[in-house]
Amino acid sequence: MTQTDGSTLVSAAWLAENLENPNLHVIEVSSASDDASYREAHVPGAHWWFWKGALWHETDRAFAASEALAERLGGMGIGPDDEIVLYGEPVQFGTYAFWVLKMAGFQNLKLLDGSKKRWIADGMPVSTDAPGAAPVAHPAPDGGEILSVGRDDIRDRLGEPGRVLLDVRSPEEYRGERVMPPPGFDHGAERAGRIPGAAHLFFRELLNEDDTYKDREELARILGAAAAAPDNEIELVLY
User: What phi and psi, each to the nearest 5 degrees, are found at residue 26?
Assistant: First the structure.
């Protein structure tokens, strides 16, 4: 996808040019609970997060509170005025972290287009060293954008005209043939199957082979076709 000035989605070239900025911090968000892949190669200076340990509540099936997220960021030396660039390993976990932090009220967020796959393909430098950082104060932000809906809202409005549920998991998960995607990491699902009436769009269809996003026009076409409403305004709920 083409990057513009002030874009939330940044290219590998942009990040390489800004890595020395002391007010910019990079976080690799991993699906794995160990940091083996991170230790093999990561964007220089990047911190490491296990997605579930960083973004979920410690005991409840819910996202971490903004206070807990702010404390974790501050512990990594990231202050409230600093800029954060996220990328996933694999790619979707960077987007997930961006979404969770945005809902919690954090503002200075960017997403690395193409994640680590494109970074390495472009011949950008990698590191095996974890950054050291002195903790800083990071007050919890005010509430963020409302980007999620709850179970009861979904259940009570099933089949409502103008609302489309879009299941973005793998085809096998959508069909109920398995609960977890390969290689079997825990993404929170507990039962096979899908929400009744949900259409399907595997999230990989929104990405190019190098894990960069397709352009805006192509994304609009794909989403419109999947929702069977290319020319109508609809409320789209993804899961």
Answer: -115, 140
